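Appendix B, record 7
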Amino acid sequence: MIPLLKLHQQAQQAERESAGERWQDYDLVWCHPDGRPVHAGQDWDEWKELLCLAEVDKDARVHDARHTAATLLIEQGVDISVVQEILGHSQLTTTKRCTHITATLSTEAAARVGRTLGLTATPDHGDRGVRPGH
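Structure tokens (predicted):
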């Protein structure tokens, strides 16, 4: 994270130089190219626009996207400690609270146990019937 912040600081210094006398120094990390503060609702408005463009019907918060990203990473087999690093959590327990057990994860877990035991679902009985070795 520190290298990214240093890059951001360099980019902001270039903006400061480019703005010259128009630069308004509020000593902010995130600001407009002239140093002015970003309006508190601006990020929210942009997020809502993205949801609309993506045709997402749910009135989701930005924080919900973090939970979705964490869950999708887990579903793709990414180790939870890697997800922890991506999300910037210092405690693994925090990351565990951000991930959710989905039908995909449950089905895959059940299938793994079935394969380990040599059990498979029979085509004519679906999930109700299993026969060893088939």
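Remarks on this record: The beta strands are 119-121, 130-132. The chain is about 55% helix and 5% strand.
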